[in-house]
Design a protein that fits this description.
The chain is an all-alpha fold and about 150 residues long. It contains seven helices and no strands. The longest helix has about 40 residues.
């Protein structure tokens, strides 16, 4: 028991962490929508780029049609599935499918460029992932059929 006591103490101390403390005299006050829009106006081009990137990761979800179509075509044949995979991954998402959270920010060049490029990468990644799933299913099917033929 005596040898286990230090181990238990170390284990419980590892869960104890020190958090940042904010002094009592500092505070952040947001007063209505005017303050928020003023904050968005004050964003640097780098901040707009990062915000567009993170907003696209959080909000862009309408790639499912392209990805599902590629999956079904790839299940028929991986070669047939290449046609929609190449076509869908080469085209950028339509503006109405982007689901951007703020139209004012979307009008800013850096935010727009970042959001649309990240959305295209998301769409392309999902399309190629589904093509890979279709290819894998076909490969396993061919291997099972070949193994059962012997």
């Amino acid at each position: 028991m005596k040898t286990h006591c230090p181990l238990l103490i170390l284990l419980f101390l590892s869960f104890y962490s020190f958090a940042q403390t904010i002094p009592g005299d500092s505070s952040i006050v947001v007063q209505g929508p005017a303050s928020i829009s003023h904050f968005q106006e004050a964003l640097s081009p780098q901040d707009l780029y990062v915000k567009g990137h993170t907003d696209a990761e959080a909000n862009y979800k309408k790639y499912k049609g392209a990805a599902t179509g590629t999956l079904f075509a790839s299940l028929l044949s991986p070669l047939v599935g290449l046609i929609p995979a190449i076509a869908c991954s080469a085209t950028a998402p339509k503006i109405e499918n982007l689901d951007y959270p703020d139209a004012k920010l979307f009008m800013k060049k850096e935010y727009y460029d970042s959001y649309t490029s990240k959305a295209k990468k998301i769409k392309s990644g999902k399309v190629w992932k589904n093509w890979g799933i279709g290819f894998g299913v076909n490969l396993v099917a061919v291997l099972v059929i070949a193994a059962s033929a012997n």
